[in-house]
Amino acid sequence: MPGSLVPVQSLYVHVPFCAQKCAYCAFYSEASSGELISRYVTALIRELELVAADCKPQTIFLAAARLRC
């Protein structure tokens, strides 16, 4: 159907916080900070609330940076 949206099949959530950035790591990450983590979680919850009614993925991928290398 032209102009219609394709339903979300999969959802990927990346939590980009590490205790420190490893030299070999290619993933986006930031050194953990309580304030930054709090802002990230607040924004993530808000975004999920905005799309929750229309977002019913079959698969959810949750990826988090490692706390230690």
Rg, rounded, reads 15 Å
Based on CA inertia axes, which overall geometry fits? Answer: flat
Lateral arrangement of strands in the main beta sheet:
1-4
Terminal Cα span? 47 Å
Tell me the helix content.
25-40%
* Structural class label: alpha/beta
Compute the number of structural domains: 1
User: The biggest beta sheet, please?
Assistant: 2 strands, parallel
Mean pLDDT: 80
Strand content: 15-25%
Order of helices and strands: EEEHE
How many β-strands, per DSSP? 4
Number of helices: 1
Question: Which blocks of ≥5 consecutive residues have pLDDT under 50?
Answer: none
Identify the notable features of this structure and list them briefly:
69 residues, alpha/beta, two-stranded parallel sheet
Walkthrough of the structure:
By secondary structure, this protein is α/β, with parallel strands linked by helices. The chain has one domain (10-64). Helices cover 26% and strands 23% of the residues. The strands form two sheets. The chain has a two-stranded parallel ribbon with strand order 1-4. Strands 2-3 form a two-stranded parallel ribbon. The longest helix has 18 residues, at 34-51. The radius of gyration is 15 Å and the shape is flat. The termini are far apart. The mean pLDDT is 80.
